[in-house]
Amino acid sequence: MESLQRDPIFLLHDVARIMRTRFDQWARAYGMTRAQGVILVRLERQPGISQNELAAICEVEPITVGRLVDRLEVRGLIERRGDPSDRRVRRLHLLPAAKPVLADIQVYKAELTHMLFDGIAPQAVESMVDTLLHMKSRLTMEADDDTVAAAGG
């Protein structure tokens, strides 16, 4: 039987869990949560996204995103704006106060990246990224196939 220490599925899970835990600790010291940090980063990359679109991307319920957005809005980091084509939709936008927080997140991410990949050949990192992208693609296709099968298609 294979040791759990060398089991790739358990290793992926453990590395992801440890990274989430570390970011949770970093975020708490900054006065926020990991989920709030994720929202800020997503909005930086996709300004004007709706709360429902953000909820789908983050794989959480819209009400959960709504509560997180409420807290970020109170802190003056983001704002909701009406969608000119559909008054029921609220678009999310970063405010200038979010810039230093995002800069700190980028610094933390760079430090973590350096710590994780220090001593690993760039080709090995590139191969790992290719492998992870392949895995992600396979899992995404499988989820799509399951959705179609559940719908009777």
Note the run of SSEs as H and E.
HHHHEEHH
Sheet with most strands: strand arrangement: 1-2
Count the beta strands. 2
Number of helices: 6
* Assembly category: single chain
* Uncertain residue segments: none
**Residue-averaged pLDDT:** 90
The level of helicity is 55-70%
Strand content is: 5-15%
What is the structural class? mainly alpha
Q: Main β-sheet, in a few words?
A: 2 strands, antiparallel
Taking all Cα atoms into account, the compactness measure Rg is 19 Å
Give the overall silhouette: globular
N→C terminal distance: 39 Å
Features:
mainly alpha, two-stranded antiparallel sheet, single chain, 153 residues, globular
Brief summary:
This protein is mainly alpha-helical and 153 residues long. It has helices at residues 8-29, 34-45, 51-58, 62-74, 98-117, 122-150, and strands at residues 78-83, 86-94.
Describe what this molecule looks like in 3D:
This protein has 153 residues and is mainly alpha-helical. Helix content is 68%, strand content 10%. The chain has helices spanning 8-29, 34-45, 51-58, 62-74, 98-117, 122-150, and strands at 78-83, 86-94. It has a two-stranded antiparallel sheet. It is globular and about 55 Å long. The termini are far apart. The model has no long low-confidence stretch (mean pLDDT 90).
Topology:
Blueprint: H1 8-29, H2 34-45, H3 51-58, H4 62-74, E1 78-83, E2 86-94, H5 98-117, H6 122-150
Antiparallel strand pairs: 1-2
